[in-house]
Amino acid sequence: MRADQVIIQPVLTEKSNIAREAEEKKYTFKVAKDANKYQIASAVAELFKVTAVKVHVISVKGKPKYTRGKSGYIKGTTGDWKKAIVTLAKGDVIQDIEGL
Q: Which of 47, 2, 56, 49 lies closest to 24 in space, CA to CA?
């Protein structure tokens, strides 16, 4: 699997921004469902030219959603996805996400 197929997009929420701005640089990414920790670490190193020290992987369940149709309300869910929290080596920064 190629590096650009492993990392789908960064997750930019209030909680992930606080973790990113802390002393330990932790970046959160939405990743492919079948990617493992080693593939994620090598993809971050290849795409952003930084060193990943730790990788935590979380499977996120989809949220319930309702929509209105002709026959009333239709129940469904959003899709399940996988999230990775990557801790970088001291002094490393991902310039694309920081916006510098």
A: 56
Q: What is the pLDDT of residues 39-50, one digit of tens each?
A: 999 999 999 999
Would residue 100 count as lying in a domain? no
Domain count, the chain: 1
Domain membership of residue 75 (yes or no) is yes
Q: Using CA atoms, how far apart are residues 63 and 90, in angstroms rounded to an integer? A: 36
pLDDT, one tens digit per residue, over 27-78 is 999 999 999 999 999 999 999 999 999 999 999 999 999 999 888 999 999 9
Question: pTM for the full model?
Answer: 0.87
Residue 51 lies in domain: 3-90
